[in-house]
Amino acid sequence: MTPYESIQVLQQRMNASIIGQENIVERLIIGLLANGNLLVEGLPGLAKTRAVRAMAKSIDSKFSRIQFTPDLLPSDVTGSENMYEEGGEYKFRFEEGPIFGNIILADEINRAPAKVQAAMLEAMEERQVTVAGKTHKLPELFIVMATQNPVEQEGTYPLPEAQKDRFLMHVNITYPDAASEIEVIRLVRGEKSGKTKESIKERISQELIFAARDEIANVKSTEIVE
């Protein structure tokens, strides 16, 4: 399978899982190929989380979901240095947090306080985290897809401009049309009743994703000479 074919397969699988939201599927794939992070905004029930999960299921990758809450600590995201005993000696060992995944779902990111949001800045831009003065590299395939609810005001912390700059795109999700909503109901009912069984499909390798990025990087552009 060529890199182009693998991306087509990824798009088909995601559209089959998220009916009537071709717009967000296309933009999630753009973010993946452009090696950028995405901020997805929409009302509850519009398949924001489902879209990210659908992508993670189709790619041979580690998926991490972080539920942002007001009492979340930076170490809950990045990980922390923990003391353990070995051979009668006490040593410190770094325990990786959920940020050390490939596809990161930052659910309701605007519910986290400024300290936690600041902890995401280094990870999203430099692709590394610094804990106790030590730098830890994140995986080569790394993308943050953050969601936020636009109607909630209480218990939320608006994202600072510095963090918004870490996102390649700000995607707004709207309600699908009536025909798509009927198909969504049928899909969900089929899943709950067990009639719709998810077949085991070969996951797309990370190497194919990197190869697709290389092909995009090799696209040539020239100035128009009049």
Question: Could you explain the architecture of this structure?
Answer:
There is one protein chain. Helices cover 39% and strands 23% of the residues. It has eight helices and nine strands. The strands form three sheets. It has a five-stranded parallel beta sheet with strand order 2-5-8-1-9, covered by helices on one side. A two-stranded antiparallel ribbon has the order 3-4. A two-stranded antiparallel sheet has the order 6-7. By secondary structure, it is an alpha/beta fold. α1 runs antiparallel to α2 (22-33) and α1 (3-17) packs antiparallel against α3. The N and C termini lie far apart (41 Å). The chain has one domain (3-216): Rossmann fold, CATH 3.40.50.300. The protein is globular. The protein has helices at residues 3-17, 22-33, 48-58, 74-78, 114-126, 161-164, 178-193, 206-217, and strands at 37-41, 63-67, 79-86, 89-96, 103-107, 128-131, 134-137, 143-148, 167-172.
Number of DSSP E strands? 9
- Following the backbone from N to C, one meets helices and strands in this order, namely HHEHEHEEEHEEEHEHH
In which range does the helix fraction lie?
Answer: 25-40%
Q: CATH class, anyone? A: Alpha Beta
